């Protein structure tokens, strides 16, 4: 595993601690590596109107976009699950829209991790080419 992967995992773990997940109690952290090496983190933020909840992945992505980042290399998702937690369907779509075939890494608090690509998690995507 690359050094930068450990840095990203640690950033996502720390972001997870800041999760606002009082309803589900399911805390998730994400770290998104930008093209110039900058790391953007996110945690899930839940609302009493449940559907307004935002996942950690989209929080990280929207922070990055709002700060002007346009190149994305890798996203790490951390949750406290035995089976590694992948991005949900909504996040897969939005990540595809802005990051294309991103490198995605999932990790848990026990130190297990695995790497995949967004195109494997999200085959036959809808996207701007259809519009
Ligand atoms: N969640 C994420 O933040 N990312 C995922 O990849 C899966 C789900 C959040 C949304 C909600 O706050 C909680 O986890 C339970 O679904």
Give a structural overview.
This protein is of the alpha+beta class. The chain has a single domain, classed as 3-Layer(aba) Sandwich (Cytidine Deaminase, domain 2). Helices cover 31% and strands 23% of the residues. It has helices at 3-17, 56-66, 89-99, 118-121; strands at residues 28-34, 39-43, 72-79, 103-107, 113-117. A 5-stranded mixed β-sheet has the order 2-1-3-4-5. Strand 4 and strand 5 (113-117) form a beta hairpin. The longest helix is centred in the first third of the chain and has 15 residues, at 3-17. The radius of gyration is 14 Å and the shape is globular. The termini are far apart. The model has no long low-confidence stretch (mean pLDDT 97).
**Number of helix segments?**
4
Order of SSEs, N→C? HEEHEHEEH
The CATH H-level superfamily is: Cytidine Deaminase, domain 2
Number of beta-strand segments: 5
Helix content: 25-40%
Overall mean pLDDT? 97
Low-confidence stretches: none
Level-1 CATH class name: Alpha Beta
Query: Helix- and strand-based class?
Result: alpha+beta
The termini sit apart by 39 Å
How are the strands of the largest sheet arranged?
2-1-3-4-5
In CATH terms, what is the architecture? 3-Layer(aba) Sandwich
Shape: globular
Looking at the structure, the CATH topology is Cytidine Deaminase, domain 2
**Count of separate structural domains:** 1
Ligand catalogue: tetrahydrodeoxyuridine
Q: Major sheet: size, sense and barrel closure? A: 5 strands, mixed
Indicate the multimeric state.
single chain
Spatial extent as radius of gyration: 14 Å
């Amino acid at each position: 595993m690359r050094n930068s992967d450990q840095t990203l995992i640690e950033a996502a773990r720390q972001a997870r601690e800041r999760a606002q997940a009082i309803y589900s109690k399911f805390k998730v952290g994400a770290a998104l590596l930008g093209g110039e090496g900058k790391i953007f983190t996110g945690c899930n933020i839940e609302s009493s109107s449940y559907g307004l909840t935002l996942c950690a992945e989209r929080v990280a992505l929207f922070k990055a976009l709002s700060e002007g980042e346009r190149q994305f290399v890798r996203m790490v998702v951390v949750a406290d699950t035995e089976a590694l937690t992948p991005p949900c369907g909504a996040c897969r779509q939005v990540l595809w829209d802005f990051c294309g075939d991103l490198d995605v890494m999932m990790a848990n608090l026990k130190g297990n991790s695995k790497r995949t690509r967004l195109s494997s998690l999200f085959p036959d995507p809808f996207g701007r080419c259809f519009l």
